[in-house]
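Annex B, item 7. Sequence and structure tokens for protein A, then protein B.
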Amino acid sequence: MPPSPRRATLATVAASAGVSVATVSKVLNGRSDVAPATRSLVQSLLRQHDYVAPSPRRGEPAALGTVELQFDTDINAYSTEIIQGTVMAGAELGVGVVVSIRGSDERTAAWARNLVAAGRRALIAVTSELSTGQLTELSRAQLPLVVIDPLNLPRARVTSIGSTNFAGGFTATQHLLSLGHRRIAYIGGPASAACNQARLHGYRAAMEADGTPVLPGYVQTGHFRYQDGLTGAVAVLDLPHAPTAIFAGSDETAFGVMEAARARGLRIPEDLSIVGFDDTQIAQMASPPLTTVRQPLREMGSVALRTALRVAAGEPIDSHHVELATELIVRGSTAPAA
């Protein structure tokens, strides 16, 4: 068997770049006191050498650094709450948080190596769909991963933070049933998304427990976006037996439902009751204010950061999946059925 190739060190990269080890270390840690041309050269050589930063030894204090908080889609009200909680926790712990959006066309291997080359101690991915290839490359790069609200749950053990989505979906539907609604539709996110499936199952469980059937066409899927609320609401309101209440899988979706209802001349909540999910800041600013299921989004960001740092330091964690409690917040968008 040929001997295994030696792992690249900072000295190896420094010699190739013609700079000091300290300069390479500054690039890895995201320091600003490095000339742009030098930084670009060092980052290129780090990738060429497949440099992987050594993990801290168990029991050693971890050096301060940065954690990547990465989204797969554009920043919205949901994302802002996650960012707020993560950044506040980072400030408390003395750890920098870098927020980014990962392009769908990025090569997996380069994506993982670039994060390591930039000096990231861990990656927090939000509502990401994880492939086996991505998990393999992150493992090879020895980059700890924590996922918030994963869209899928791969067979490999992945550390994740979520909320009690099933309980939230059940409570939201139960609230509408208690108001006398029986024609209740659900407009949610991707059909394959784990968080959407849990909310949908909660909705169906509440309907079944009440002995109320879910009529054909009453379940619509999308991407938790405003446009999904618009198109989903049009679809269900065009049915022969239109719903008197709609449970939306996110606040943003609920706002789309509101707009579709207004376009038809429907009054909220007199003609149509609406419940959202998330309790973002804009839920209180809606007209009328939105009844919604509160996810502790800031706390989810904080817990994700603390968990990622523990994994990066080689410390044991209590559970590979943590669910924080949801809570129904009743406002002005729901009322008794007419």
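Protein B:
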Amino acid sequence: MRAVVVTEYGVLPVVQEVAEPEVAPGSVVLKVEATGLCRSDWHGWMGHDSDIVLPHVPGHELAGTVAAVGAGVDGWQVGDRVTTPFICACGTCEQCLAGNQQVCPNQLQPGFNYWGSFAEYVAIPFAQVNLVRLPDAMDFGTAAGLGCRFATSFRAVRQVGQVQPGETAVVLGCGGVGLSAVMIAAAAGARVIAVDTNPAALELARQYGAAETLTDASELRGVDITFDALGSNELVQQALRALRPRGRHVQIGLLPDGVQLDVGRLIGQELQWLGSHGMPAHAYPEMLELVAAGNLNPAALITRTISLDETPAALAALSHGTPAGVTVITP
């Protein structure tokens, strides 16, 4: 199969022929129909993830058709249209049995722990608890974005942040995660303020329901909840200063360089710092129902579709900023 292969961190990957993944017991192999280009892929390419072993194939948000079914996987067959969370949980540990697959200590992530979806085929471990059947009306490009950015934002806004109608929610960073959060928070009835330095991203944020857009949040005060959807120490500081007493901050973006916190203010104002990491497969039905009903429109987030051959350059270009909207790759 053809795949994007990283041989050195920070060096332009190449598209080359590699062996197709073999189907193992408990797993399936998918023919990748669409996969998203995400900033987390850039972090991996830059060497920010210790789980990656070179040579490596990135890609972790995907949709496709089942190409092979391993022993012990029931209810799935070749040709089924599916997506999967980027966190492939084991399904048997204490956290999984409690429904918290997104923090499974035995999780495997395509594109990080093993070769991912910037390829024609990808393996999905623990398939019984991680496959999500796609509605017939949903195209693969839309479904690919659900596995990381949209599903991650859905859980961050609705389940972790528990945004309520009438609240003011600030989304800092309007890449794919941030724009998803804007759309989902607005649909939940919040007054959304979107923050980004990219005018094109802010225009999309307005289209997706933001009541106000800003290039800087340093003067904001008294808001109910903030989301760092990018991963920046500077944005975290703006987010925490913007909160009212007993406000909530949800951290979605990765912080590879760490962050400084005014712990005294966290304590004195009784602020909440909440982490949010993905969403388990069993939680997808609520999100899919809202999409089917027209309350959410993840397809609108897609602004660019590229080929596998265009992917190395697009990945490297993330070093200079994130393009507005979501980029989907069709292998």
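Comment on protein B: The chain has a mean pLDDT of 95.
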